[in-house]
Amino acid sequence: MDYLLHIAIMANIYIILVLAANLPAGMSGLMSLCQGAFYGLGAYFGAFFLLRTGLPFPVIVIAVMFFVGITSLLVSVASVRLKGDYFVLASLGFQMIVFTVLYNWVDVTRGPYGISGIPDIQLIGKGIGSLSGIDTYFILTTVLAACSAALFLHLKRSPFGRLLRALRDDEHVLVALGRDPARIKFQSFFLSAAFSALAGLLYAAYIGYIDPTSFTLDESIFILCALFIGGIGNVRGPVAGAVFVVVLPEILRFIGLPDALAANLRQVIYGLLLILIMYYQPQGLQGEIKLK
Fold first, then answer.
1. CA 181/CA 187 separation, integer angstroms
2. Which of 66, 77, 242, 276 is deepest in the core (most CB within 10 A)?
3. How many beta carbons lie within 10 A of that of residue 26, not counting itself?
């Protein structure tokens, strides 16, 4: 049972991550390769607050989301001048900078040694309402994933969501209507980074240990893969994609492959299934749009 709950918890964390990635990539048309950086910053900020303060969990959530959201301005400023592939490279640069800082600033982040002994979440305050145990984290992550999905669904249907889609489809129309595309990009990236940070905080509190290798470029690509597999531009797609990429590798563990070949064959089967999905369902499992 604990194994199933662990998979469900990780799926919930990735649902929040992929929903956050969908905001700039799916709804705004800004492809970013730095979601793993925001995820990592959320985990490290969260670890700092959990280790050094006795603040209630809701306060820590607000603080982590705000501080990481502010760092997203470094990326969104680049989006004002850079388009297409050039912006993708700029976001890649930010990802590499964050990983380098996390890996080499040993005095603060403990570098490759990582940060261990991250305490349980305190709902109300230090020593009060402590959240521990896999059952509790399952409930907490499920509630937060459901709230995140509901919020992004409301956002998609709101006037701001229509502005994001207009930004994706034709930025010049926004300018003609007197809207400021730069401001909309800033808001989009701020929200995306903030919710990625929430996922990072939950990951750090649940696992109790973090190190930079969990927040590399590979992680950013993995998040985007989940987004494209599920489908971009709506809420159903990110949820479906997150569940798919978390659950499928676990299912492949039980197909009875020889021990000597199991790991490599599972990777081959996983890759083939992803190719088939993209070939026969190019807009994703629950896709709404296709990027031009």
1. 10
2. 242
3. 31
